[in-house]
Amino acid sequence: MNDYTIFAFQQMMTTVSNGMAGKMIPAIVNVSYIIMMISLMLGVYEAYAKGGDTRALAGTVMKFIVVAFIIGNWTTFFGDLNSGFNAIAQHIDDSYGAGDLITDWKNLLIANWNNNGYSSIWNIITGGGAAIVNSLEIAIAYLVFPIAAQLFTLIYVFWGAVLFAVGPLVLALAPSRMINGTAKFYAQNLIVWNCWAVLYAVFACLITAVNGKDLSTSGPFNWGNIVGAQTQVYIGLTSIIYAICILLIPIMAMAVLKGEFSGVAGAFMSLISVSTQVTKAATSAAKAARAGKGGASGASKSSTPQGGSGGGTYQSRPPSPTPPRATVP
Q: Which of 143, 161, 108, 157 is nearest to 10 (CA)?
């Protein structure tokens, strides 16, 4: 079996799966055999309840044979399936020589910080407000991208480990039509998870094709056309955009498999709505503060006594309530 691990998160997943294949998976497989026999009996009973449907019975037996073979060779089956998708990702990545985008961009950020980071800090002292804003944006970028990369790696490895561990237990339900919906849903999620590496390779090739790894230019987003934009600023903005795109890969994988791109659009809109809500909250707070000052000044004006002809104050009394009339029975 070929082991295609060109990306850092794939190497971590390989290490985790090799550790799980030692003692955990054999125990899970033994339990899966029991569940599979129960599922087979349910499938036979379902065929009998339909009046002895031989077609349904043959389908149950066929699914039992296929599932028994997969569960018996689960470690090899899972590894070959993952290696197949990783091989596709490697061929796509090699088409442009993209390499590992997360690792390469992190190394570029480290080198850029060693060369220009300390001078950016000095600009906070000498450059005024604009330099402070630029430096804060750069600091956020240096935090967002590594955190996004670690989150994507953690989610990939954790979700892959869960699929690897519960796979035999879920596939054992396949022979019965009554409970095989879970097995179908699991198979779909297994394919979606393997597509993450393919989409990651496509994104890395896209960034490489548009020269997105060159820190000496404005990059693929043409930040250089913005008046007053400095190199450190567009490097930070590019890092934030890369981080968002990497975190959207799991959502895009599901959308590509189902052919529904509304999920990706919804994810982008949710990110925009968060920033919009923050802006609205700040605007509302400012308006409330101004309204509070205006109300206080208005109240002080209304409380000033008005002088009459004699120089005194006059306060009108409210009319006394009219007593109710007695009714004659």
A: 157
